[in-house]
Amino acid sequence: MSLDTLKSRMPDYAKDLKLNLGSLVNETVLTDQQKYGCLLASAHAVGEPVTLRALEAEAQGKMTPEAIKAAKAASAIMGMNNVYYRATHLISNTTYTTVPAKLRMNVIGSPGIEKADFELFSLAVSAVNGCGMCLDAHEAELRKHGLTTDQIQAGLRIGAVVNAAARVMAAETALESETA
Question: What transmembrane ranges does the database entry give (predicted)?
């Protein structure tokens, strides 16, 4: 399935999402690896099958196998970190923010691709998962690597649009299966 097929399957009420998906794919402030990595990582974070298949197909040939693996790894590690660090931030007892996490996170230090690209994938996933602490940490790392506000915002926009598109597709699939 392609991105065009995904967009054609989306209902009319999600027209803005269709348009946003198209504009994000044509985004020029990010490299193809950055753009498709954010799309793929965000789709894996949401896990909705129609959107995931479409964005995996779209990423093929536009990213190296190492970058595809890194996008999936960013989704996996942020799936853990976003929950843990969001929880330590939300718990009233601040002790949990002062103790070591004692969670393996080796892929962050050695992602197999440019560190800035992995950080951007992680930022997009952190936006999907809603972890403010992780968003701050990844944004700061991206700034250290010289990414601009426009580039960082593009990663955030990708996470937001993929999340919304996947939720629309999940809702429509649920309705279809209910009437079948």
Answer: none
Tell me the domains of the chain and their CATH numbers: 3-179 (1.20.1290.10)
pLDDT in tens, 139-159: 999 999 999 999 999 999 999
Helix (H) or strand (E) holding 124: helix 115-129
For the stretch 26-56, pLDDT in tens is 999 999 999 999 999 999 999 999 999 999 9
Distance CA 129, CA 81 (A): 10
* CB of 71 closer than 8 Å to CB of 64: no
Write out the two tokens for 30: 């990010």
Active site residue 38: no
Q: Which of 131, 133, 147, 166 is catalytic?
A: 131
With 0-12 / 13-18 / 19 or more C-beta atoms within 10 angstroms meaning exposed / middle / buried, residue 29 is: middle
Catalytic residue among 30, 45, 123, 134: 134
Is pTM beyond 0.85? Reply is yes
Instruction: Return the H-helix or E-strand segment holding 50.
Output: helix 49-59
What phi, psi does 131 have (nearest 5°)?
Answer: -105, 105
